[in-house]
């Protein structure tokens, strides 16, 4: 098939879409460390988790051995409304850069949530519905996950209660309004609705919130309301499992045209997109079937991979959640203002953390203005206005393509374009006006977070 | 092919994409009336138009006989970045409505302009570049056309000067910022930059602008700046020609699966989407090869088809443009506040006006809150948050599908989903808060506009 001309956009047919999610952990020799009960410091059992998460999702969370989880028919049908997403050959970008590299991006932005988040939201809502629950709670930072969950809950007739980081709630009223269109209730966090919210507000009266503290509130709301469970859009194994649909489609599309990737690049906040994109490729690598350079890109202002510690830490600020072993900046770390809300989390998926620790992938951090420069360049050349999160991957993909121009190497670069920036125009405006901060935390500032890591 | 299962989304392959635009006028017995010189009341010649429009676009504008215009290779390449757009089978909507009708929509929102406008913008920018021009000017109301033109000009390295209706400029700062991302300059209109702007401001100091007056400013700016021409996103024959790509793709996708449409529905402001969507179907109808019900949907607050006069009128408020024979509410008509900025134009494409006058299509008007109810319903069921403009077509498509439920008829309904509503959340917020106006002009109010129609 290698002689076949590669179209600008590769769409799989419905019959070529994956019918099972791939669980990367099944092929890992060093499994990700288990979640720990913060009281006993023992691995969390399914029973302990059952007050927080849906039963089937717990099963997925704890299963390190099953490679394939069949996608339920109802979820497949929903996927068909907005998937397969296109794998785009960036012909225009290649030409503009004058690079011999072949650049592809998997574009997940063509749905109303504006990102890949819907892939897991619909799965989590489905299992909540199957269990006969009344509703779910969650947190959202940038708003993409909250929007995705609102859409999914609306589809299954579930209540959806979203706690939104206060600064985002105020800066992005339109995101809030989209969630409202899908019938969700949206509360700025920290709020007076929960004990943990009231405690945080008492201690930090002027706080504009953080993802970690919003998680605490959403978990409390779920566990204290009958018929509710908590759902999360990143970090967890179950989320990476659902998001494997991104990588599976990408690989199927490349295989269809006989293309072998050399470098795979994704932005990394909690790891949902990166973990999903790389899943089948990393699986090949783990099984010794193929090799790839896999690069995680994170903001220099929130550098959990590149400057964090690999240690057990709380997943939330309120310290009500289990401990996860991960690359972390400490659960109290609040990154300097930056506009990639989806990448402002203090920690990182345990699965990706283990893979990074084992030397199976690389990580780089990039500065905010460099990211927006790449975003604007890409928008003008490829026509898609990227989300700030996605632009982190664009920045490094361009850097790698430019290296190919210098060396003459015809590498194949694949990156994840997680979403669109339509709700991020305040950030673009700051960039245009030269008002964007490139603050990077000092070693001393990071040490404050490390000093507070739990002693496990 | 009729036995083949129809996927949720039909994507043509690149080789199935149309390679020529279809000029509906070639098959019309009663041709649209020519533009008139407002001074001489004689048909505008190519030479008279050459100070305003690009030469090739004038040729397309005046040609009522050539059926097919080959799409230049460079435009085809650009189309491949975001086209073919999907023809979606609305399985979920059908199920939710419990209708035996088969519903399809052609979704044009998957590009950064958020609408079909890019189809003509790239063509107009291309011809401007080919002619060696320095830049173009235009007006924008809702902002979709301005965004599309900004993208197209950025691609070809042309200057782009956008006059934006002042109320939109202020209410939609994010639209402005997207245009800025693509390097366009955006001026709220009326402005002090043009004679006509200064005149309008002197006469109506507090005005928040209208599309008609913004057109006057953009035309003046183009004709008074060397190396510039004016481009327009709707109404004109050339725009309908470029937009025929929507209908040609739609028809090719339906033909591929052996599906025959019964009813074709599109929203109508100036006619760019509707004229493009229906082009090949209307062509069949004109040639006696097939029959379709074709329905234009317009806002009850700006009812040019359903309550306007078929008469020669100015295309702009400043009366600097040629006269067009069309259904019009008078060039001074300012519709009551509504949120479908793309449907607030006082007139209508001459081509569509002639077809409507000849009984070849129907028109209905719908109230704003009904439109937003349909929009929200659709968003929840089909997952796409529609632009207010597009939701006009959704409203009538749902109405027709409900009729089928009542009669048991298995009609095939095709409608144009022109774009997404991500920049229209202020409108959705008003709808949610019950603050939306349903004002419909009285006969007396409309008569004021009719009384001022030029005597031709």
Q: Could you give the topology of this structure?
A:
2 copies of one chain form a homodimer.
Chain A: E1 9-10, E2 20-22, H1 46-49, H2 55-62, E3 68-70, H3 73-82, E4 87-89, H4 91-97, E5 102-107, H5 118-130, E6 135-140, H6 144-156, E7 159-165, H7 166-171, H8 173-181, E8 185-189, H9 195-203, H10 211-223, E9 228-230, H11 237-256, E10 263-267, H12 272-286, E11 293-299, H13 304-307, E12 309-314, E13 323-328, H14 350-357, E14 362-366, H15 368-382, H16 388-407, E15 412-417, H17 425-432, H18 443-451
Parallel strand pairs in A: 5-15, 6-7, 6-9, 7-8, 10-11, 10-15, 11-14
Antiparallel strand pairs in A: 1-4, 2-3, 4-5, 12-13
Oligomer: homodimer
Shape of chain A: globular
CATH topology of one domain in chain A: Rossmann fold
Task: Report strand order across the widest sheet of chain A.
Answer: 1-4-5-15-10-11-14
Q: Determine the mean pLDDT of chain A.
A: 95
Which radius of gyration of chain A do the C-alpha atoms yield? 20 Å
Name of the top-level CATH class of one domain in chain A: Alpha Beta
Could you give the distance between the termini of chain A?
Answer: 53 Å
Please name the CATH architecture of one domain in chain A.
3-Layer(aba) Sandwich
Number of extended strands of chain A: 15
Q: What is the makeup of the main sheet of chain A? A: 7 strands, mixed
Give the helix proportion of chain A (percent range). Answer: 40-55%
Largest two-chain interface = A-B, 43 and 43 residues
Instruction: Give the strand content of chain A.
Output: 15-25%
């Amino acid at each position: 098939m290698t002689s076949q001309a590669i179209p600008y956009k590769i769409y799989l047919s419905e019959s070529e879409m994956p019918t099972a999610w791939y669980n990367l952990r099944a092929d890992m020799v060093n499994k990700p460390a288990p979640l720990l009960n913060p009281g006993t410091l023992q691995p969390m059992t399914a029973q302990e988790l059952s007050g927080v998460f849906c039963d089937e999702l717990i099963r997925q969370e704890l299963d390190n051995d099953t490679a394939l989880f069949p996608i339920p028919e109802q979820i497949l049908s929903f996927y068909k409304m907005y998937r397969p997403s296109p794998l785009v050959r960036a012909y225009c970008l290649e030409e503009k850069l004058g690079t011999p590299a072949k650049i592809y991006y998997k574009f997940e932005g063509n749905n109303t949530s504006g990102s890949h988040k819907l892939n897991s939201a619909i799965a989590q809502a489905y299992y909540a519905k199957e269990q006969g629950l009344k509703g779910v709670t969650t947190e959202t930072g940038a708003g993409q996950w909250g929007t995705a969950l609102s859409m999914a809950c609306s589809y299954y007739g579930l209540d959806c209660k979203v706690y939104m980081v206060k600064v985002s709630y105020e800066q992005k009223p339109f995101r809030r309004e989209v969630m409202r269109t899908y019938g969700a209730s949206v509360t700025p966090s920290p709020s007076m609705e929960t004990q943990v919210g009231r405690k945080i507000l008492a201690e930090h009266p002027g706080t504009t919130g953080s993802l970690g503290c919003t998680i605490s509130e959403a978990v409390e709301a779920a566990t204290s309301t009958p018929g509710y469970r908590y759902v999360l859009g990143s970090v967890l194994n179950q989320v990476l499992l659902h998001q494997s649909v991104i990588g599976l489609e990408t690989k199927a599309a490349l295989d269809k045209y006989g293309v072998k990737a050399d470098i795979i690049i994704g932005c990394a906040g909690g790891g949902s997109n990166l973990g999903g994109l790389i899943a089948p490729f990393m699986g090949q690598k783990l099984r010794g079937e193929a090799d790839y350079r896999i690069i995680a890109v994170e903001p220099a202002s929130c550098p959990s991979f590149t400057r964090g510690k690999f240690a057990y830490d709380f997943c939330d600020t309120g310290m009500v959640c289990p401990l996860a072993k991960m690359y972390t900046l400490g659960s109290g770390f609040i990154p300097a203002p930056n506009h990639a809300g989806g990448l402002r989390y203090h920690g990182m998926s345990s699965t990706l953390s283990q893979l990074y620790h084992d030397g199976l992938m690389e990580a780089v951090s990039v500065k905010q203005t460099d990211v927006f420069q790449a975003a604007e360049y890409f928008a003008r050349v490829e026509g898609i206005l990227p989300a700030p999160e996605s632009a982190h991957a664009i920045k490094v993909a361009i850097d790698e393509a430019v290296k190919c121009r210098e060396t003459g190497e015809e590498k194949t670069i694949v990156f994840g374009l997680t979403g669109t920036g339509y709700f991020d125009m305040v950030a673009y405006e700051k960039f245009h006006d030269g008002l964007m901060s490139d603050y990077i935390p000092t070693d001393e500032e990071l040490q404050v977070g490390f000093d507070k890591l739990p002693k496990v």
